[in-house]
Automatic annotation (TrEMBL):
Cited SUPFAM superfamilies: Gamma-glutamyl cyclotransferase-like
Keyword Transferase included in the entry's annotation: yes
The family this protein is said to belong to: Belongs to the gamma-glutamylcyclotransferase family.
Chain positions covered by the region annotation Disordered: 1-23
CDD domains linked to this entry: GGCT_like
Biased composition (Pro residues): 9-19
Name used for this protein in its record: Putative gamma-glutamylcyclotransferase
Coiled-coil regions listed: none
Lineage summary: Eukaryota, Fungi, Dikarya, Ascomycota, Pezizomycotina
Gamma-glutamylcyclotransferase AIG2-like domain sequence ranges: 61-164
Keyword annotations from UniProtKB, A to Z: Transferase
PANTHER family: AIG2-LIKE PROTEIN D, GAMMA-GLUTAMYLCYCLOTRANSFERASE-RELATED
Gene Ontology MF term list: transferase activity
Amino acid sequence: MDNPSASPAKPPTPPPLPPFASFRQHERESPYLAKLASAPDDWLSRPVDPPKPYTYEPIHYFFYGTLIQPDLLKRILDLEQEPELRPGKVIGYSLSSWGQYKALVDGRPGEEVLGYAFLVESAEQEFKLARYETSAYELAPCMIFFADGKSPEQAQAKTFMYAGDSGALKDGRFDASLWELQMGMRLPPRRRRQHGREEESS
């Protein structure tokens, strides 16, 4: 029979911890500290290379409306010579009428819009084109496929697309989104609901 007064056996004493230095040997060396240690002594005092000056890269613009007229484009951009326009097309778009003007909108896959391309050569020319088109149009990227047999045969470009509701434009409905964009204010909710009912009943 066990003696209840006997004390329990003591657990074995754990081995002593290794010296702190041995832990340091297994630590992963910081790549930043290693790079810093290998840097030359005068790296902080070395002059920094100045940033390269900004250079504008010319880009083609695709025109399909009034801007395909060389005389008008020459006047808008203050050109000294007649602008060189290349015939071409964009694919996946369609044209609608916004009053007396044409407006480029998204079309069916494979649908083509014919027009002309012009190589814009400065940011100032881009600004003048945007000012002429007004807030009714927004700039969008596109791919031009040229039709004159010259090189390049295609190019990344920009074009002006209708900035409002293309569905309302195609259906001939009041475009509340374009009105708000041009006026810089929102229609009252009551007016929005009224136009919504008119569109549903039409």
